[in-house]
Amino acid sequence: MSPVGINTTPLLVELSAQELRHRLAEALAIYVEAMDYPKGTEFHRAPMWTEHTHRPGWRAVAAILPGDDPGSSEGTMVGIAYGYRGAPHQWWHQQVREGMHRSGADERRIHEVLGDYFELTELHVARAAQGHRTGEAMLRRLLEDRPESHVLLSTPEVDDEDNRAWRLYRRLGFTDVVRHFTFTGDNRPFAVLGRLLPLPAEATENAHSPSR
User: Fold this and answer.
1) According to a count of CB atoms within 10 Å of the terminal CB, is the N or C end of the chain lower?
2) Considering the entire predicted model, what is its pTM?
3) Phi, psi of 107, rounded to the nearest 5 degrees
4) What angle do the packed helices 24-35 and 41-52 form, to 10 degrees?
């Protein structure tokens, strides 16, 4: 990956399913670095990311350091975000439902949270490109004009919620759905967070629960 200057602000480009599949190696390299997964994880994730592009409501946004044509999706990819409409047959939906059951949520609460949501599946910025609020810009673009009533995501637990991802989600009003949940296939604890859509035009101090 090319070095990123401190004053370089990436451009946001909405990717088609075909474009993401074409640039999947770049996107997965960013993902593996951001999630601190071992090298080789990208080969296991590639079929899953490809399958996700066929799901209803799928959308992807990339952060690009532009090449010769600033309006194209060519150039160096330094950020990737995508998601789709959640549904009961999906693995992540079933995992979150189980986590909510374990945490004591009743069926009414579970239906409020899982009945109509956009799953923010991935949101990652290359370490070298961080510091330009690129994650927030991608998140806002991804969630523009979504028909779902709210958005859900999962993020690894960290001490005192002290990293860029947590600060972004809290600043934009995401609140707890499930905490310290271990997904099948990953032994790290994760938090599931959510909030109502649409996002506020500017960050607010008041959090909004996905069931509010």
Assistant:
1) C
2) 0.88
3) -65, -35
4) 120
What digits encode the pLDDT tens for the residues 70-88?
555 578 999 999 999 999 9
- Assigned token pair, 73: 């999706």
- CA-to-CA dists, residue 66 to 13, 20, 163, 177, angstroms: 10, 16, 27, 38
3-class DSSP state for residue 5?
Answer: coil
Residue whose tokens read 């994650």: 135
Axis crossing angle, helix 134-142 with helix 164-171, rounded to the nearest 10: 50
Active site residue 82: no
Cα 186 to Cα 155: distance, rounded to the nearest angstrom: 12
**Full DSSP string of 101-165:** HHTT--HHHHHHHHSSEEEEEEEEE-GGG-SSSHHHHHHHHHTTT--SSEEEEEEE--GGG-SHH
Distance CA 141, CA 145 (A): 9
Q: State both tokens at 111.
A: 């239906």
